[in-house]
Structures are given as structure tokens and as C-alpha cells.
Q: What sequence folds into this?
């Protein structure tokens, strides 16, 4: 077969592929486009002519101003930031320290706890949901605190994080460095934070991305813990919108746009890392 | 003797400092509630009163008699089968299309993954708007009968809507895992097969798919476990309706406990749901692991 013919047939295959991909891509983006289009329209136009570019009455920014106020966006946004941020910080800190000691110390209790964590990864949230509320709501009465939710996020994220740090430390952190530092008189905490922790960066990045995405979007657990309006996170606040103002399509549209914007901005900035992190998290 | 003693206290100190916080949070949030949850299945608790009367096996008996629970479980199994098959078929097809030398391949990847950045609740509302307003409006404009009435108002179509959104939500994520698997299949093997006279689709069927079994194992495991526990999307898109016809098991359990205040029964059903999921997920992983091929 001659080269030019083969090349041109490869080219057509390439073009067909791109056309198919572009079509599928447009279908995938369609809901976002429709959302964005209608978020700037007046309520009557959204209901009567949701497909048209602009309504009879033109575009408006009013939906955003009103939704911003009604869902208390600043408070809700800050709640989400605090809960996601502090949880991620504590998850990384506690799970890396725990994994380190699990790898380096051959104690029976370490082996037992590590196995227990591995098994617990198959337990879905729904199985512990009711007892969790019974213990922390009924017995201790400490629902409606951000700290309670953060503590639970940390607890639920431990197994997977310890597992990933465990694999990385065992395979990729040489013990010789630590022994040298030990001879020079450094204590275990100093050895960990000055020598080991900086080497964990790739796993830290992966875990921060995975947990930040999961916690930012989490609905069920926060909705059970935080029933006080002042503590709502973004997903809970949006839910309230649908229920209480279900006739206010215009406000709902604007609220949904505002709810997805932070994640989209972060994605545009960190796309490469997010995709790499998600793949690393799934395959390990 | 003293030295041994001091090294033991030293070790306990090290354990508490390093593993203490992690282990405490882990035990307090997962292990203790898990064990306590098993105890709860033998009690009847209304969610308010301080005492939880011991009722023996009564909850298990009422679960067996709870027809709606079993039908929601059956619906969930049906949903999982369809969703897992379609999500993975679409994801694998997208991975095949996107990988290779294609213009804008990174752009497409990033686009297909976008739904995964957004939580199920918000996705559900966006799609509720699409099904209730946009598609109906398209149906009216173009006179397409099956779009003119909202899908969410009929049980069968509301179920189909859940499947559509599930595909849209997860296929980009699974696609990334398949792409990682595809890049692991060496170019040499593919070229060798092409030189030996295989057609493109034969290469996919006999070379690529067998070498990518581990990606399939991961993706199918992930999609089974996620779809079995579907809640957010179910709540936001159909709210279990119309008339409770799309209430999946996780939502049923939630309602049993928090709306009907039958916490003991709800917990028993949660554990049954978990056991079924675990058995299916583990069996699937074992079967597909045994079929994996080393390149």
C-alpha cells in the first residue's frame, strides 16, 4: 500500500473522530449553556421561552443580586471554604503522620489498625449515618457546629488517605535519610516534618484535590449535621432555594450559577493537576 | 529493666502523637458507629426519646415484610445494571476517541470531566430544569411528541432521566481511568497486530480490551458502589417521584429513619443494602481480576 493513501485515510478517520467528539462535547455542555443563558433572564421569559437568546424583556443582573442576598451567599460561601479548607489541612496532617508510623514501626497494633482501615473503605456512609446522628445528636448533642462536621470529614477521609500515604512512604521514602538525622540527634517529630513530609508532596497534592472536591460538594452529611441556617454550606443553601422559593425560577438559576462558579474557576486554573490527581486517586 | 520500661512508654508516646488523632477520628466516626449501628438493629428508637427499647429480631421481621423496601431495592439493582453498562460503554468509547493524535484532545477530556466537579444536588437541579422546561420547550417548538410532556412526570421516563444524568455525570470520570489504561497498552503491541493484518476494531477487541482488564475492574467497581448508594441526584432530580416510583434504596432508608422515625428498621435496611452491595462488588472484582492478562 502506498504511503499517501494510508495517510489520507488516517486523516479522514481523524476528522471523523473530531467531528463526533465535538458533537458529544456540545451535548455535554448543553445543560451548562442553558443554565447560563437563563440565569440572566426575567422569570416570565425563563418559563415562556427558555430557549431564546434573551427574553422579551432582555437581560438582567437582578437575579444574581437577589439570589445572593436570599441565600446569604457570602456566609454560605465562607462556611464551605472554612469547612473544606480546615478539613483538608487536618486530613493531610493526621493521615500522613499516622501512615508514617504505620510504615516505620512494625507494631501489632499498627498492623491491626491498618487492616481495619482497609476494610472500612467498603463501608458506605449510609450504614453509619443513623448511628452517627444518634451518637452525636442524641448522646452528645453537638450537632450544629462546624467543628463537629470537620471532625467527621476527617474521620471519614482517614482510611483512604492513610492508605495512599502508606503506599508512597513504603515505596518512595528512603529510611537512610531518617537514620542519619536520628544519629545527628533529631527527634521523631523533627525527622518527620523536616525530612519526610516535604517528600510527600505528590501524594499531598492528589489527596487535597480529591478531598477538596468531595467535601465541597458533599450534601448528605452536612445536611444532617448543620440544620442552623447560619452554618449552611453551598449545596445545602441551594437545596433550600428549590424548596422554599420553588416558583422563583429566576433566582434558582442565578443561585445554581453562583454555586458552580468557584469549582469551575479552580478547574480552569488547576485543570492539569486536578485530572492527574483524580486518576492517581482512582487507580491506586 | 528500667530502660525497657522507658522505651515502652516512649513508644506509646510516639504512637499517640503520630497515630493518635487519625485513629481517634477514624474510630469515633466509622468503627464505633458501625458497631453501635449493628446494636441499633435490635432496638426500636423513634429518634427523640432517651431510651431505645430492645426488640430482638422484630426489625428484621418487619424488614422482610416491608414490600416497598424490596421494590426500591429491586429498582436500585435494575438502575445499577443499566447505569454501570451504559456509563462504562460511553466512557470507554470516549476514551478511545479522545486518546491518540487528535486536535484538542486535552480540551475534550477537560470538558467531559466537568460534571464531576459539581455535586449531585446542584447537577440534579440543573437537569430538572432541562427536563421540565428546556426539553419540553424543544418538543413544543419542533413538535416532537415524546418531549412535549416532562420526562419527570412519568415513572418510566423519570427513571430514564436518572440514567441519562448518571451517564453524563460519571462517564467523564471513568473515561480518565480508561485513558490511563489505554496509554499503558504499548504502541508496539498495537503496531505488531496491525502489521499482522488486524483491522482497527479487531485490535480493540482482541488486543486492547484484554490488556485493559484492570481498568475495567476499577471502573466497574467504582460505578457499582457509587450507583448503589445514589442519593443526591435522586433527591434533586426526581425526589423519588412521581409518586415514589423512582425512590432508590438509599433514599428509602433515609426516609424510613428520618421521616417515618423508624430508626431501627432504617438501620437494618441500611445494613442489608450494604451487605448486598459488598457481595456484588467483591464477586465482580474477583471474577474480573481472575480474567486480567499480564502484558
A:
Amino acid at each position: 500500500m502506498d504511503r499517501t493513501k494510508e495517510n489520507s485515510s488516517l486523516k479522514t478517520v481523524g476528522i471523523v473522530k473530531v467531528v463526533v467528539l465535538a458533537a458529544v462535547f456540545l451535548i455535554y455542555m448543553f445543560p451548562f449553556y442553558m443554565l447560563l443563558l437563563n440565569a440572566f433572564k426575567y422569570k416570565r421569559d425563563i418559563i415562556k421561552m427558555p430557549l431564546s437568546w434573551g427574553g422579551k424583556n432582555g437581560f438582567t443582573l437582578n437575579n444574581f443580586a437577589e439570589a445572593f442576598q436570599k441565600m446569604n451567599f457570602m456566609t454560605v460561601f465562607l462556611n464551605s471554604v472554612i469547612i473544606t479548607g480546615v478539613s483538608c489541612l487536618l486530613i493531610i496532617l493526621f493521615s500522613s503522620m499516622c501512615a508514617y508510623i504505620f510504615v516505620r514501626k512494625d507494631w501489632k497494633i499498627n498492623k491491626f489498625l491498618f487492616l481495619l482501615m482497609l476494610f472500612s473503605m467498603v463501608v458506605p456512609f449510609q450504614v453509619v449515618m443513623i448511628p452517627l446522628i444518634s451518637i452525636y445528636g442524641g448522646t452528645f448533642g453537638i450537632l450544629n457546629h462546624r467543628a463537629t462536621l470537620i471532625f467527621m470529614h476527617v474521620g471519614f477521609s482517614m482510611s483512604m488517605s492513610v492508605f495512599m500515604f502508606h503506599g508512597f512512604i513504603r515505596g518512595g521514602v528512603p529510611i537512610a535519610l531518617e537514620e542519619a538525622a536520628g544519629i545527628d540527634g533529631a527527634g521523631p517529630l523533627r525527622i518527620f516534618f523536616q525530612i519526610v513530609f516535604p517528600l510527600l508532596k505528590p501524594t499531598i497534592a492528589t489527596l487535597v484535590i480529591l478531598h477538596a472536591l468531595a467535601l465541597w460538594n458533599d450534601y448528605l452529611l452536612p445536611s444532617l449535621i448543620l440544620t442552623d441556617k447560619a452554618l449552611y454550606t453551598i449545596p445545602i443553601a441551594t437545596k433550600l432555594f428549590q424548596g422554599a422559593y420553588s416558583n422563583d425560577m429566576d433566582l434558582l438559576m442565578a443561585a445554581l450559577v453562583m454555586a458552580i462558579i468557584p469549582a469551575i474557576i479552580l478547574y480552569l486554573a488547576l485543570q492539569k493537576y486536578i485530572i492527574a490527581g483524580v486518576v492517581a486517586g482512582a487507580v491506586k | 529493666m528500667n530502660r525497657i520500661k522507658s522505651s515502652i512508654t516512649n513508644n506509646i508516646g510516639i504512637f499517640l502523637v503520630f497515630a493518635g488523632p487519625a485513629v481517634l477520628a477514624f474510630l469515633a466516626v466509622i468503627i464505633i458507629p458501625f458497631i453501635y449501628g449493628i446494636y441499633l438493629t435490635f432496638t426500636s428508637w423513634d429518634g427523640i426519646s432517651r431510651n431505645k427499647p430492645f426488640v430482638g429480631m422484630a426489625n428484621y421481621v418487619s424488614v422482610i415484610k416491608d414490600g416497598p423496601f424490596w421494590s426500591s431495592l429491586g429498582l436500585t439493582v435494575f438502575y445499577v445494571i443499566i447505569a454501570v453498562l451504559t456509563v462504562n460503554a460511553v466512557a470507554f468509547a470516549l476514551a478511545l476517541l479522545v486518546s491518540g493524535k487528535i486536535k484538542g484532545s486535552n480540551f475534550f477530556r477537560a470538558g467531559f470531566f466537568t460534571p464531576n466537579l459539581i455535586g449531585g444536588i446542584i447537577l440534579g437541579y440543573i437537569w430538572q430544569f432541562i427536563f421540565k422546561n428546556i426539553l419540553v420547550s424543544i418538543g413544543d417548538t419542533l413538535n416532537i411528541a415524546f418531549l412535549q410532556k416532562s420526562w419527570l412526570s412519568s415513572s418510566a421516563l423519570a427513571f430514564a432521566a436518572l440514567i441519562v444524568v448518571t451517564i453524563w455525570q460519571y462517564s467523564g470520570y471513568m473515561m480518565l481511568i480508561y485513558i490511563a489504561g489505554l496509554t499503558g497498552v504499548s504502541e508496539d503491541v498495537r503496531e505488531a497486530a496491525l502489521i499482522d493484518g488486524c483491522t482497527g476494531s479487531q485490535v480493540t477487541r482482541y488486543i486492547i480490551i484484554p490488556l485493559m482488564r484492570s481498568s475495567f475492574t476499577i471502573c466497574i467497581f467504582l460505578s457499582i458502589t457509587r450507583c448503589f448508594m445514589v442519593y443526591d441526584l435522586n433527591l434533586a432530580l426526581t425526589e423519588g417521584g412521581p409518586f415514589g416510583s423512582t425512590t432508590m434504596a438509599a433514599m428509602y432508608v433515609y426516609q424510613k429513619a428520618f421521616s417515618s422515625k423508624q430508626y431501627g428498621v432504617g438501620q437494618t435496611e441500611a445494613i442489608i443494602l450494604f451487605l448486598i452491595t459488598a457481595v456484588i462488588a467483591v464477586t465482580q472484582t474477583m471474577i474480573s481480576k481472575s480474567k486480567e492478562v499480564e502484558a
